[in-house]
Amino acid sequence: MDDQNPKHQDHELLSDAKHEVKDMASKGLDHPSTKPVLTGAAVGAIAGGLLPVVTWPIGLVAGAGYMLYKRIRP
Question: Which chain regions cross the lipid bilayer (predicted)?
């Protein structure tokens, strides 16, 4: 493998995320990414509720976004 050409390109991140979310929406809980992303959203919402600066909706989005990113770019 060439070190100059990494396996994942950052410019493909949004298209990969869009494809992953579409697959998750069509397959529901049968898709392997759905449960980890929902878990990340729940943990983020709880953390957002406990932290004084961040609200739970921001925590929910941040947690889901982080887990989606980790599923796309392990």
Answer: 41-69
CA distance 6 to 66: 21
Distances 21 to 40, 43, 47, 58, 64 between C-alpha atoms, Å: 15, 19, 23, 19, 11
pLDDT tens, residue order, the chain (74 aa): 445 555 555 668 888 899 999 999 999 999 999 999 999 999 999 999 998 888 999 999 999 999 999 999 87
| Contacts of residue 39, Cβ cutoff 8 Å, sequence gap at least 6 | 67
| Tokens linked to 23 | 């697959």
